[in-house]
Amino acid sequence: MKNLQHVPTCEECLANGHELFKDLTPEELEIVNNGKGCSLYKRGNIIYHEGNRINGFYCVNRGIIKIYKTGIDGKEQIIRFAKWGDIIGFRSVLSKELACTTAKVIDDAILCFIPSENLFSLVKNNPAFSIRLMQLTCRELGESNNFITDIAQKTVRERLAEILLLLMENFNLDDDKVLQISLTREELANMVGTATESVIRLLSEFKSDRLIDLHGRKISLLDIPGLKKIASF
After folding, report:
1. Average pLDDT score over the chain
2. Tens digit of pLDDT for each residue in 140-169?
3. Pick from 32, 35, 63: which is nearest to 47 by CA?
4. 160 shares a domain with 144
5. Are residues 69 and 113 in the same domain?
6. Is residue 155 a contact partner of residue 197, using CB atoms and an 8 Å limit?
7. Parallel, antiparallel, or unpaired for β 102-115 and 212-215?
8. pLDDT tens, position by position, 171-212
9. HSE of 214, CA atoms in CB hemisphere, 13 A
10. Residue 28 CB: number of other CB atoms within 10 A?
11. Is there a contact between 119 and 58 (Cβ–Cβ < 8 Å)?
């Protein structure tokens, strides 16, 4: 973690389309802006650990963060990825519980830390902000419900196809149809909820079927309708 010489302002994020703080008054925005601390985190840095108490939440200004839970055997179960415009850690702050996940940087990131007292002040005094926060919480809960259903009812092949499509929705493709996020085979397996060997085998099958192409960690999605058909997406 490294402190920044240029600290991004909340106004800059709002100008680029950040939604959460859209309904704050100029005075509230100034309080958030003056009370936050922004730092640069390198790939591999842990932002917070599952089971620890956190006294604030984080806004992602740049980079990609992996949010995961750790099983009894020490294996990661990836819940989601956070990127620019996302916030992490806020549910544990609101519930006043220990962090229920771990957040780890997988692409060098700039994060702004906002203390819990500022969050509670906004929730109490700004109804529009509270509604946006509730909507965000409900969306995350809906995603978790979908994930549980998929684990219970879909095959590993179907889940892998769906995960590739979800990564495309969240991180887009470049002009060569390459996913704009680089994941290890183990990380993909942790998202799908299966063994790494199974993901390696299925990726090879998808490549043979000309659904995807592989370039080390980079994956090109060549046949999106074909992936959707497999995933029942």
Report:
1. 90
2. 888 888 877 777 788 999 999 999 999 999
3. 63
4. no
5. yes
6. no
7. unpaired
8. 999 999 999 999 999 999 999 989 999 999 999 999 999 999
9. 16
10. 18
11. no
**Residue type for position 140:** E
Same domain, 86 and 122: yes
Q: Taking the model in full, what pTM does it have?
A: 0.85
Alpha carbon 126 to its chain's center = 26
Give CA separation, 209 vs 58, 162, 212, 221, in Å.
41, 16, 8, 12
162 is in which domain, residue-wise?
Answer: 154-231
Boundary residue ending a domain (107, 127, 151): 151
Type of residue found at 47 = I
Taking residue 113's Cβ as centre, other Cβ atoms within 10 Å add up to 17
Same domain? For 45 and 93 the reply is yes
User: 97 by DSSP, 3-state: which?
Assistant: coil
Q: Quickly state the pLDDT bin for 3 (edges 50, 70, 90).
A: low
- Residue 171: which of 52, 82, 94 has the closest Cα? 82
